Every structure is written in C-alpha cells, then in structure tokens.
Amino acid sequence: MTALDFPTEAARRLVATALDEDLGPDGLDVTSTATIPADQQATGHVVAREAGVLAGAPVIDIVLAGVAERTGGRPPAVDVRVADGTRLQAGDVIAVVAGATQQVLMAERTLLNIMSRLSGVATHTRRWADALAGTGCTVLDTRKTTPGLRALEKYAVRAGGGTNKRMGLYDVAMVKDNHVLAAGGVGAAFAAIRKRHPDVTIEVEVETTAQAIEALEAGARFLMCDNMSTDLLRETVTAARGWAAERGETVEIEATGGLTLEVAAAYGATGIDWMSVGGLTHSSPIIDLALDLV
C-alpha cells in the first residue's frame, strides 16, 4: 500500500457487519422511523469535538450507501471538507451530509464509531511521529490490532505519519525466541525460511549485541532489538552497522519493547531506522466526533 490508499473493501465489510449489529435483521431504526416522516430531508455536519488527526472520512459515503441499500432509499449526498491526515481543531466541520433525515440518523452512530476509532489511532501515531522528528527514525505499527479492523487501523497509522511494518504473518518473516528454540538456532531458522520462502523479508529478534552479530552471520539484514536500554541499543547499532560495512552491506535496525513517548526521541537518536509500537493500535483512545443536524 502507498501512503494513504484507503482500504475500501475492508471498510465495506466492516460497515456491513456494523449495520447488521445496529439495524438488526429487518434493517430497522425503530425511533427514527416512528418519529420522522420518510420524506423529511435534513443537512448534518460531521464535526470534531476535540483536537486530533482525522482518519476514515471515506467511511461516511460507505455507511450512507449501506443504509440506503437496506432501506431502499437514495443515499444522502456527502461533501467531505477535510482530508484524512489533517490535524483537527475542536469545532472543525469534517463533512456535510444532506438527504433523508431517517437515513442520516440511521448512519450516524456507525460512521462515528469507525471514524472516531481510526482518528484516535491517527492522532496517537502523530504524537509518536512528532516525537521522532529529526531523529531519522520512523514509527511502525505491529500485528496487535483489533480483529477485523487491521487494514483500517493500519491505514490510520499511515494517516498519522507512521509506517506499516507488515500486514500479517504472510508478508514478512519474523524470527523470535520461540522460533529459534523450535528450529534449533538462529542459523537453522533463517536457513529454513530462506529455503521455503526465498523472496520474503526476514527479520530476527535479538536482545544482546552478541545475538545481533550472530543473526547477521546467519544472513539476517533486518534486526529487531527487543527491550534494550538506550546504551545497549546504541552499542548494538554501532556493532551491527560496523559488521555490515566491513562487508559492503547494510542492515536495517528496529527497536521495540517498553517504549514510551517520553523516551522516543532518545531511542530514535541511537541510530535505529524503525521503532515499533503496539500501542498505536491496541491502546489509542478515540477522538470525539459528532454528527449535528443544522
């Protein structure tokens, strides 16, 4: 995926599930259909209640189209006024929707739930990206995502200025301690993956400088330094890059484990390329968004 390719098909699947939950087997909003005439029209503003970074604006159209499909009406028109990745201030109008009042209100909670979640991830990611500015290090996400929301949450990471590490178990091989133990060593694990999957990127987790050199000698050129202090990480980076330079090669180095925003810049300054943070997707609070009829 490029920077902000929106995962439309993943969004459609999520919206279908969310609307099934909200509208039930009969596609019904008992409050709106009882209190609002079917031909009544309304205009609504999707607005930010607090500052943050926007992600998920394309969901508005998808949710409204999903409601229209279930109710047999024409989808409300949508005018998105703020692009994903934009910093929001409280009161900003993100989009204007105009159409049948019933449909707008049926769609309200589903589109807000998704956008609030994605904007929360983007906002959290932006804090990390800002903390790492000037260090040469980029923040990465992990596989610690909400089941069913991975493509969308990883999109939100990109919207917030981060980068996706891998989408799943299928696109990057990561050799961790359990793999080393089961395979009989770093070299055996690396060789087995390279034989079975000759073109896949292989990353090896290390906890000491000696393990880093061992991984390089086994063929690894992508290291994940786990739970290292800044001093140990700096030492490992120097040793690994020196080893690679002597052979006319390069090595990518990632730090992970126990990282916080308070120490992000210090870790970024050790010379690493990447910093992976599971909290981008598993611990981001939502951003408060609303849909107000005007």
What is this structure, in a nutshell?
This is Nicotinate-nucleotide pyrophosphorylase [carboxylating]. The protein has 294 residues and is α/β, with parallel strands linked by helices.
Q: Can you walk me through this structure?
A:
- Residues 29-119 form the Quinolinate phosphoribosyl transferase N-terminal domain.
- The chain has 294 residues and is an alpha/beta fold.
- It has two domains: 8-126 and 284-293, Alpha-Beta Complex (Aldehyde Oxidoreductase, domain 3); 131-283, Alpha-Beta Barrel (TIM Barrel), CATH 3.20.20.
- Helices cover 46% and strands 19% of the residues.
- It contains eleven helices and twelve strands.
- The chain has helices at residues 8-23, 30-35, 59-71, 101-132, 150-159, 177-183, 186-196, 209-218, 230-246, 261-268, 279-282, and strands at 41-48, 52-53, 77-80, 87-88, 93-100, 138-140, 172-175, 201-206, 222-226, 252-256, 274-276, 289-293.
- A six-stranded parallel sheet has the order 6-11-10-9-8-7. A four-stranded antiparallel sheet has the order 3-5-1-12, covered by helices on one side. Strands 2-4 form a two-stranded antiparallel ribbon.
- Helix 10 (261-268) links the parallel strand 10 (252-256) and strand 11 (274-276).
- Helix 1 crosses helix 4 (101-132), helix 4 (101-132) crosses helix 5 (150-159) and helix 8 packs parallel to helix 9.
- The radius of gyration is 23 Å and the shape is elongated.
- The model has no long low-confidence stretch (mean pLDDT 96).
